[in-house]
Amino acid sequence: MNYEEQKSFLKRQRWRLVPSVAGCAVLLALAIAGPQNIAESVLADALAVALAWVAYYLPQYLGLDADPWRRLYWLSRARWVALFLFAIASLLAGAKFALAATVLAALLHLSVLRILLKLERQDLRDPIPVRLTVLALLYGASDFALLWLARRGRVSPLFLSELLLCFVFFFAVIVRPRLAVLAAVFGAAASCLAFFLTAATAGEVHRVADTVNAPGSVGAVEIGELVCVITSVAVFLWTTSTIYLLIKANQHNLANYDDLLENLQQFLGESREAVANILLMSVPMLADNWRRAQPQGQEAVATWYSANARLYLLANCQHHLLYRHMMYTFSLLNIGRGRVLDYGGGNGDFSRALARRGFETTYLDVPGDAARYVKWRAEKEGLPLKVVLDKNALEGPYDVIFCLDVVEHLVDLPPVFEHFRKLLKPGGKLLATYYNGITSSAPMHIDPGYDAKDFLLSHGFRDVKSTVVSLFSPELMQKNHFMILEKEDA
Q1: Handedness of CA 456, 457, 462, 468 (dihedral sign)
Q2: How far apart are CA 23 and CA 56, in angstroms?
Q3: Residue 271: what are its φ and ψ, rounded to 5°?
Q4: How far apart are CA 151 and CA 199, in angstroms?
Q5: How far apart are alpha carbons 173 and 136 in whole angstroms?
Q6: Residues of the chain by 3-state class (helix, strand, coil), percent to 5
Q7: Domain segments of the chain: what residues?
Q8: Which residues contact 434 (CB under 8 A, 6 or more apart)?
Q9: Alpha carbon distance 284, 288 (integer Å)
Q10: Helices 70-93 & 130-152, crossing angle to 10 degrees?
């Protein structure tokens, strides 16, 4: 993983976001200036803002991932939110048929969740299963029926156009389009549907004008038609841009994935199929191995990690493909300086990124495939990275020690923390995560029985997180179990 390349890609994604933001700005302006009642206006305003966030965050969050089914878990929850908003809008408009149809759509979603969430994991390069395509079409048909009934029930056409964008995005998340031209196809289809939804408003204005025959009726007709066109253009902009962002994220993720598999193939001497299968199953297999072994004591835990080093390596590799992990890593890299120690460095992506930035970097982890892989990659890339397998062989002092997702895997913490204090320069920084509870995928988290941060604060460290991490590094600010401590002067 080359984090500079990832950063460059995400910077391009920000520029590609401009049409989506422009579309949301138009929808927001129409919601504020529209004739709908206050409740409908607030609902439309909030959804327009939410759609801007969707375009900014979700294409990367759902596209940059090693597990193609993770997005389906997100979809299973997101549809409930969309149906809830649809029900609220129908209730406010008194659209009884639309409200009843929402209940039926919810029952449909509930009945197919088993299909949605029980599909077998597969290689990212594998085609989308036919069952998923059929499911996407089924959802699309039910969503169109909902929008049509709501429009007949006089639900705000602008709000329906915004909900249409949610449904189109849901469809794209399921089918995972890979060709850039499909973004325009999605945009054109959504724009036509939005025109259909809002054209009814212009038609109603026409009928009122013909009946009343008032002097101002012609202006009202023109305004209604103009709103219809503007809404359709805004829908086209948002859909085309957001689906394009999703497609580019999928393409970039496949490139990252292929590069990872190629390196793992060369290192492990296994076929692509074998590496891909182990990569997908590494996290649950690692968890199952821990539950069976139940190692007790620091020596037994270290031995277990060495014995499971290959699964440990692959589980780390999979995790590092995630968008959120990339953003987290960018923030961490900005804090590195001078001589750096990556304690428990896993697959070494972070250590190599530090070395690539010119820091004098040392990697430490248990003996096994992970450490050998790091050394192999560093030599292959010509990086001056020092690989150490015994903490007693570390040569301080260091300016910064990173101990990321490691503390919760250690049994006896005080000697490790004391070692950190000795290895750091006065004023040196320790950046570490600490115990955050056991999960189904990580039963190997070990509760030390006390708060690691409080322990360190009473043993020669002070908390400097608020001064080091700015509001512009939300990935670090949001991690409750992440600390930045500074060694107090001797």
Answers
A1: positive
A2: 13
A3: -75, 160
A4: 10
A5: 9
A6: 70, 10, 25
A7: 3-257, 292-487
A8: 407, 408, 451, 452, 453, 481, 482, 483
A9: 6
A10: 10
Pairing of strands 360-364, 385-388: parallel
Contacts by 31-34 with C-beta closer than 8 Å and gap 24+? 31/158, 31/159, 34/156, 34/158, 34/227
Beta pairing class for 398-403 and 339-343: parallel
Q: What is the pLDDT along the chain (490 residues), one digit of tens a residue?
A: 788 899 999 999 999 999 999 999 998 888 887 666 787 788 888 999 999 999 999 999 999 987 777 888 899 899 999 999 999 988 888 888 888 999 999 998 888 877 766 766 667 777 888 888 888 899 999 999 999 888 888 888 888 899 999 999 999 998 889 899 999 999 999 999 988 888 755 444 344 334 444 444 445 456 667 778 888 899 999 999 999 999 999 999 999 999 999 999 999 998 888 888 888 888 889 889 989 988 888 888 888 888 888 888 888 888 889 998 898 888 888 888 899 999 989 899 999 999 999 999 999 988 888 889 999 999 999 999 999 998 888 887 999 999 988 888 888 888 888 888 899 998 899 998 877 777 777 788 888 787 888 888 888 888 888 777 765 565 665 667 888 889 887 5
Handedness of CA 192, 197, 200, 202 (dihedral sign): negative
Place of tokens 């909902």: 146
Going from the C-alpha of 427 to that of each of 195, 446, 450, 463, 471, the distances in angstroms are 62, 29, 25, 12, 23
β-bridge pairing 461-463 and 398-403: unpaired
Q: Please give the DSSP secondary-structure letter assigned to residue 322.
A: S
Q: 179 vs 56, 111, 140, CA distance in Å?
A: 20, 31, 20
Helix axes 130-152, 181-212, angle to 10 degrees: 20
Residues 405, 378 contacting (CB under 8 angstroms): no
C-alpha torsion sign, points 451, 454, 458, 463: positive
Prior bond of 397 cis (ω within 30°): yes
- Scanning 176-216, the segments in alpha helix (DSSP H) are 181-212
CATH topology of domain 292-487: Rossmann fold (3.40.50)
Q: Which residues pair with 485 in a beta bridge?
A: 430, 463
| Helices (H), ranges, 64-180 | 70-93, 96-117, 130-152, 157-175
